Amino acid sequence: MDQDGFVYVADTWNHRIQKFTPEGEFVTMWGYFGQAEQPDAFWGPRDVAIDPDGRVLVTDTGNKRIVSFDANGDFIAEFGEQGFDPGQFYEPVGMAIDSQGRLYVADTWNQRIQSFQPNGDGTYQPLKMWDVSAWFGQSLDNKPYLAVDDQGHVFATDPEGYRVLEFTETGDIVRFWGDYSVGNDGFGLVGSVAVDPQGGVWVSDAGNHRLMHFILPQE
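Now predict its structure.
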């Protein structure tokens, strides 16, 4: 959601982004299947994030890049290509933006999280990266998503590891929890993650067809 409540959806296998009002009314859409020959030529976009200035960032997963647009879908900038160096990706999926405007990306098949500093014009430069002991499989289900809380802690899902991981903004592990279970002590397949204003962590458990809410221990 953006600051005005509009909802943006990564419609992955239609290779497009859709925008709706807070009431669910369709506003606009952009994108088609392609290999980055145009800014909106997507290959399985997986996630959308909104920066503090209202720019719409898209992980164009199959094309190993991130593209930013304005709220109407007009192109602003893009960065990324396949590779292992900072600013390069191998299956970028989930994104999250913290209160300082820093961007975090789940660089899935490189098994790491990368962070980026905004330049103020819709472009970003690499800031940090850290390895993640997760995301070993390359199935269509093993796609991790991220969230950031008010402390700058980064939460990452480990879908087929049945876990949620929590890191500091510099990549130090804080905690992790979960295992395979149909009870409330684990997950069937971890989907996305979000953090509410009270610090509660919400996780979609796709394998058990449910939404789970966690209160973290106070440190």
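The chain has no helices and 20 strands.
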